[in-house]
Amino acid sequence: MTYLIDTSALVRVMRDQVDEAWLELTRRGLVTICEPTLIECLTVAPAERYGETEQMLLDTHPWVPVPDDVWDIVASMRRELAKHSVHQALSVADYLIAATAVKRGLTVLHEDRDFETASRFVPMLQQQRISELPPADAS
After folding, report:
1. Which of 17, 31, 74, 128 is most deeply buried (CB count within 10 A of its CB)?
2. What angle do CA 43, 16, 129 make, to 5 degrees?
3. 100 near 68, Cβ under 8 Å?
4. pTM to 2 decimal places
5. pLDDT in tens, 69-85
6. CATH number of the domain enclosing 127
7. How many domains does the chain divide into?
């Protein structure tokens, strides 16, 4: 199983607040990153360490490009969530991460109940909290 990390999980990894099993999956290249997470994380990076922080994140997590048709996927997800009155659960960045994960067949790795909510109504959206241990078949 390969994961697409959300900022809520990435912050915990960077603070070393996760189980060693997640760090091992990260070392093995099974925890990827995309532009929305990178942007969110770098907004709090000090200007003098911006490039260094960006390179560290890219060296640590394989890159997953946001798909060209991401807005079509986002629109579909947004409409489905609106049918259940939970369309406000995800931020724009979260929608982009979720749509990228769906399109690329990845599981969103997060610590944010909004992805759990969204996955109840968008069955193609696979998600996993980083505060829980990885499934036995994750490796």
Report:
1. 31
2. 80
3. no
4. 0.94
5. 999 999 999 999 999 99
6. 3.40.50.1010
7. 1
